[in-house]
Two-component system, repressor protein LuxO
Amino acid sequence: MTSGPADHSSVRIAVVSSDPAFRRLISDQLSVHLDRECDFQIYDGEVPSAFLMEPACALVTFEMEEELSHLSRLASRHPNMILLAFSENSSVSRAVAAMQAGAHDFIARPVSAEALGKRLSELLSQHRPAPSQDMKSIPSSAPAVTQSDDNNSDEQDALKDFEGFIGQSPAMQGIYDQILRVASSKAPVFVTGESGTGKEVCAQALHARSNRADGPFIAINCSAIPADLMESEIFGHIQGAFTGATQDRKGAAELADGGTLFLDEVGEMPLDLQAKLLRLIQTGALRRVGGAQEIPLDVRFVAATNREPMEEVRVGRFREDLFYRLHVLPIHLPPLRERRGDIMPLANSFLKQYAREENKQFCLFSTEAEQMLTAYRWPGNVRQLQNTIRRLAVMYDGTVVEDEHFPELLRKDESFEQELNDAICGLRQMGHAMADAILPFWQQEKQIIEGALQAFDGNISRAAAALEISPSTIYRKRMSWAQKEAV
Ligand SMILES: Nc1ncnc2c1ncn2[C@@H]1O[C@H](COP(=O)(O)OP(=O)(O)OP(=O)(O)O)[C@@H](O)[C@H]1O
């Protein structure tokens, strides 16, 4: 055994490898790439029966199948030690085997000192707990957010990147930043984005980060409630207000008093109710259906739509005054295809969740499956990805998710092709229409000159002066048009 400089404040790292090149990489090059002082204890291949002082982390190379037992032994003897396995065999099955033996991470060799230093610093700062026996972690190619091994849903939540959101793409970082900036205001927030992009998650995050987080969060989906029930659902009613109103009842707005009211698909609300909502936002008070009493409320409004709100205003489905009342703080959630870097973190997290729920062993995706997931267009966004992973966790068994586990993605993306074909046809037709609409030069010239003559009541001199041509040109042109038209 060799050891680095002994320093009581430094982190102890055991290195177990029979490969001199690997040992040299650690002893000569690694420390400059680590974000803390480390004391390396280097063991020459033989796994020690006991460490003098238990290291925080062990780096173990293994090339033979039999060496897996070394890993398992270390993992079971030192459950609090971070265990990293290295192999020159970078196959998925080798990675899975290492994880199942209890490694927290698997790194294919050769690895640069820089990459190893970065990964090790990350792991040490996470100071992660020991892997559980039934669900092992996934390799280092996957993002850190999916790499904890706990089975506890509270810890799961802590692993989300931001208030229920997963995704570290620059676009999502921008969204988290926006949420943090506007959360404490009482001004309404208007969230737009395609279906399944996380508008409700966003509304919840706004609530959770506001100073009304201890108050209620009430969500109401305006497209899911029949129009005749919507008024009472939102504004409540008093006994006898209509047939079936057997007692006084609070609506969603009153239930949200002191908290946040999330109005999903707000544009689907009938226009008369939009007027009533506008009044509530303006006055901060409502009257229940059939009631005479004004009830003051303290509600923060978050509205959302997956349509283009200005277009809805233009066609008269969405009141313009309500739109501007709600559209104080806009947040737009980008579709998943515009933030492909988030696909695998989301997929890994869903896989972990549904494998656990369905009591399955799935713990990682094959390279082909990963390529397929990241290349797909996800028209249904995160919700579609979530459903896809849930389906495979129910339907299949195994440890590694393969591309054939996604038959629906393997099929051609027909709706996309259809859309693309339609768009191309549309463009062609537009091109034809535009080509058809192009008039011969002399006719366009005639239109311009005649337009000028009209503007000056037929006065040729003034029209010619405005066009900066001579009057004789106009006479000449007129004669030539007459000849052309006579043909
Ligand atoms: N970034 C994310 N991280 C984790 N889960 C997400 C994320 N975005 C969406 N989801 C999940 O995807 C599903 C759909 O999200 P949500 O209901 O918020 O979408 P939406 O935009 O409101 O959809 P719709 O317009 O159809 O109502 C939910 O189960 C949600 O938890």
